[in-house]
Design brief:
The complex is a heterodimer. By secondary structure, chain A is an alpha+beta fold. Helices cover 34% and strands 13% of the residues of chain A. The chains are: A alpha+beta, B mainly alpha.
Chain lengths: 304, 200
Amino acid sequence: MNFGPLVFLAAFFAVAGSWCGFVLAPQLQVGHLQQDKVVGTGNPYPLARPGLAQQGLQVYRANGCASCHSQQIRQTGTVCDVLLTDAGTNHAALIAGLLQAKPSLTESDAKALVAKLPQPIVQGQTKEQADAAAKVLNAAGGKALVWIAPVGPDIARGWGQRRTVAEDFLYDYPVMPGSQRVGPDLANVGMRLPDANWHLLHLYAPQHAAKGSTMPPYRYLFDKRKIDAVASPDALVMPTDLMPPPGYEIVPKGEAKALVAYLLSLRADAPLFVSPFTAATPAPESTNAPASTATTNAPATNPK
Amino acid sequence: MNPQTPQSIAVSAELPEPRVGRRAVPVWIYIMLFLLLYWGMVYFDERGGWFNQQVYAPYRSIEQVNFYQPPSGGPDLTRGKAVYENICGLCHNNDGSGKPGQAPPLAGSDWAQGNANRMMRIPLAGLTGAVKVKDQEWNLAMPAMGAALSDEDLAAVLTYIRSSWGNKASEITPDQVKAVRTQVGNRTQPWTVEELNAIQ
């Protein structure tokens, strides 16, 4: 018996099936992705990056930043907190409601809670549990808000508020999601480190800006210039031990400025339908707050 | 000569050519296949999201994504804030403190926190002439800044004004705005304080 045609057909359909699943279907689904709307405000998201930041993307690509930095926040789950924002008028009923919503609470604790609003009542629950607790509190005359917070190791490191979705890269060409994490994830670096001078200093002398960093310095993106009559307004503000000899200054080249503009434009802080979370308008102590930065090698706060 | 020479006998004694035949497939392969199929179905159920492009991990289905949307009930202060900073904040200041010679303050103002029916009319047609805000006389003209806004946006921004910067007043719903908008009709003449005070 000759099985040649059968073997050929089987191989053909195996390859064609995988091609349809991994190439054609994703292209049909997200190949023509449009701007999304921010949940709540209805503003369009994302906006195209400013021109300088678009040039910065090419600098990011040319310097191979994506070989050590990813731009993908992972999310392993979503938890809900219940936030009491208003006590209403009937305090006795509200305290009874609080004790029902959170049985571990004692009555004196509940009274102390009500005195200082807004306060998180229950944290880290599923949506069903949080909805039930909020319903009890609302029925008791208070105003309870269900706070939706994505969780995951990346979010705990303070790298972002939600997972990265396809929309975040809508106007980027080429897309630079990266795959290795020799350095920290940069998906939201513009949100985490909003200071342009810090970024310039970090490119010039990484170990100075972030202790223990393994990043190589990118000094060829800077010029060491003799100060003519007046110092350049772009000259790097530096700590004394890095300063060039007197009469000289370190000035970022166009590439460095473009790269920093691109880094500052990296921020995915808009709640989208595909990745919902409660935007931080009322800001109480909540699990949504960026956690400590012990695990990042870049400081989360501006060290200046 | 007899064709059956010893040489030809030796040839026919060779093993026959191997041929493809039929044999029953072992049972363990079927069991393996079914286990693999079962694992595939479980995996798909957990991560497939029914091939919906809007379902990303950790969500399992579009229903679950819908379920986890932030609650839309109650006043939408995020939207109100956005509208305020776009339109009202230019003159009334982003912190509601007003600007001398341009607009009176909204923070702590009785006009902002008082009768909602009067307050809703001000952005719909404007306000002109003398008005007393926080014990201070103002004599300016406000154009009909809110006439072009949708009911939802106007309700959101008025609610934001009434509940921000220490203001504490009731929420204004889009339905209320709609009702007042019909009452105001296509009036283009700005209100005066006397006209507004006549409204209950």
